[in-house]
Specification:
It is found in: Nucleus. Helices cover 47% and strands 14% of the residues. By secondary structure, it is of the alpha+beta class. The protein has a five-stranded mixed beta sheet. The longest helix has 27 residues, at 194-220.
Length: 499
């Protein structure tokens, strides 16, 4: 075999002849032995093995051999379980040649590289190649690939952070796998149009996901209750409203499951009342449950929502969203109106915002190791990010302003106030992020978090008058919004960690 030979595609490897197995099942068209060896070496994920199955009396030889599958289709080869040697075989040939096989003599047929492939890549228990071949990729090719990604995102006016998203990486991985299996291809011949994607592929995937969720729910609905969250949002461009419903439940393995159940368009001409929202939630649930069960299910389940009046009566049993409550505490603390009574903090934030604006508009942000982040009105999280970014880069900012003779821009900036403010806010930000996680149960943390955050709001002897006033004001809002329910206390009491 020519060592420089390129691995042929699946169609190039096949002959036109077909083999017929004992059970009259058509086996995939023939492959050449050297092609299969090459495939095992270069693309091991395409080659798997299975036990021989037949309704007739099975020869003992099949305890030493397995059938070969390429791309999950049977081919006319078997492989020795011990030495990776391949033998051309189909039912009419019988097992005589297999019985004569001795592993010590077969190693000449399988080269040293294939012996290494066997030891590295074959799972002996299942006789399945599980690891892809590791190759050294030139750094220039890696750099070129990433350059192409950047150019593609820029052309489509997409943010560079897209490159780190799970969806983008999943697409890239599928492209790599497709190329490894079929070789270099013109992508425009295989990527379908928006119309086809929406009408065929999206519909098919959505149905599959619904069916899977329905099967999971059906398996446990007799002995569990559900927790629902729902929300509405508006597509301002097309003037369309939508209602989204999520459910969370414990499966039969006692694992927390979180699933999107559906999205319903909420007609703009319908009044946004709890009765109408409930009817749209019922429509989504009727996809998974019988109509007679839905009403009982909604009455027995719990909804977690914010405190908006039109959301409170959708489900009879409702729990407040604690991340929303913390959001209210922080929003009010850093709101324009509340900061009027904390003039030093307001002035420090305004001064810092002007510095950030100067660095962004003048292009100086690119000179910083950690760029300054701009804050937005009525967004406490952006104000925290702005302070954090300045604290990380304050030395570089001062050096640049000194060099440009612009130090007067921060001459009135009270860094001590900003750092003290950050120290007060950060525990609440961490708690907000903890309660916002969908994959963990958090109801048992509500009570411990109440006492922990209350402790952070206690006035100490080291606090300045500015921070003392802020803590008093913040504690008032904390006690107003962060209220405890009986279920929070019960959940904490049932958690062994808090006993």
């Amino acid at each position: 075999m020519d060592k420089k030979m390129q691995v042929p595609t699946k169609d190039e490897m096949k002959d036109s002849e077909e083999d017929v197995d004992d059970d009259s099942a058509v086996v995939s068209k023939k492959w050449r032995k050297h092609n299969v060896y090459q495939l095992m070496k270069s693309y091991p994920n395409r080659v798997t093995f299975m036990e021989y199955e037949s309704d007739q009396l099975r020869s003992e030889v099949w305890s030493k051999f397995k059938r070969v599958l390429i791309d999950k289709e049977l081919v006319n080869f078997v492989k020795c379980n011990e030495c990776i040697a391949l033998f051309h075989w189909y039912a009419k040939l019988g097992t005589t040649s297999l019985l004569r096989h001795r592993c010590s003599g077969a190693t000449q047929e399988a080269s040293t590289s294939y012996q290494k492939l066997k030891s590295d890549c074959i799972d002996k228990e299942h006789s399945v190649i599980t690891q892809p071949t590791q190759t050294t990729i030139p750094q220039s090719d890696v750099s070129s690939l990433n350059d192409s990604m950047v150019v593609g995102l820029v052309k489509d006016l997409q943010p560079i952070r897209t490159i780190e998203s799970k969806g983008f990486l999943a697409i890239c991985q599928q492209m790599v796998n497709f190329g490894a299996k079929h070789g270099s291809q013109d992508v425009t011949k295989f990527v379908k149009s928006k119309r086809v994607m929406k009408s065929i592929h999206m519909t098919k995937i959505a149905k599959s996901l619904r069916d899977d969720l329905k099967a999971n729910i059906t398996a446990i609905c007799n002995y569990t209750r559900f927790t629902f969250t729902f929300d509405r949002w508006t597509n301002a461009e097309k003037q369309r409203d939508f209602l989204l419903l999520n459910c969370r439940f414990i499966n039969s393995q006692f694992e927390l499951q979180s699933s999107l159940m559906g999205v319903q368009e909420f007609p703009t001409d319908i009044i946004n009342t709890n009765v109408n929202i409930r009817e749209h939630c019922k429509k989504i649930l009727e996809v998974y449950f019988a109509e007679s069960v839905v009403e009982i299910l909604m009455n027995d389940s719990i909804a977690v929502t914010d405190g908006t009046s039109n959301l409170k009566g959708v489900f009879p049993t409702r729990l407040p969203c604690m991340s929303h409550k913390l959001n209210m505490v922080l929003d009010n603390t850093l709101s324009e109106g509340n900061l009027l009574s904390h003039s030093e903090i307001k002035f420090a934030l305004l001064t810092l915002k002007n510095v950030v604006t100067y660095f962004k508009t003048s292009g100086l942000n690119t000179k910083l190791t950690c760029s300054l982040k701009q804050s937005f009105a009525n967004c406490w999280d952006s104000q925290v990010r702005m302070i954090e970014s300045y604290v990380k880069s304050s030395c570089e900012v001062q050096a640049i302003l000194t060099e440009d003779k612009e130090m007067d821009r921060i001459s009135d900036l009270n860094e001590v106030v900003l750092i003290d403010l950050l120290n007060v806010i950060k525990p609440f930000k961490s708690a907000f992020e903890d309660f916002s996680v969908e994959t963990n149960i958090t109801v048992d943390k509500v009570v411990p978090m109440f006492f922990l955050l209350s402790k952070y709001l206690e006035i100490t002897k080291d606090d300045s008058e500015i921070i003392k006033n802020l803590k008093l004001n913040m504690k008032e809002m904390f006690l107003k919004y962060y209220t405890l329910e009986n279920i929070h206390i019960a959940a904490t009491a049932l958690n062994p960690r808090f006993l």
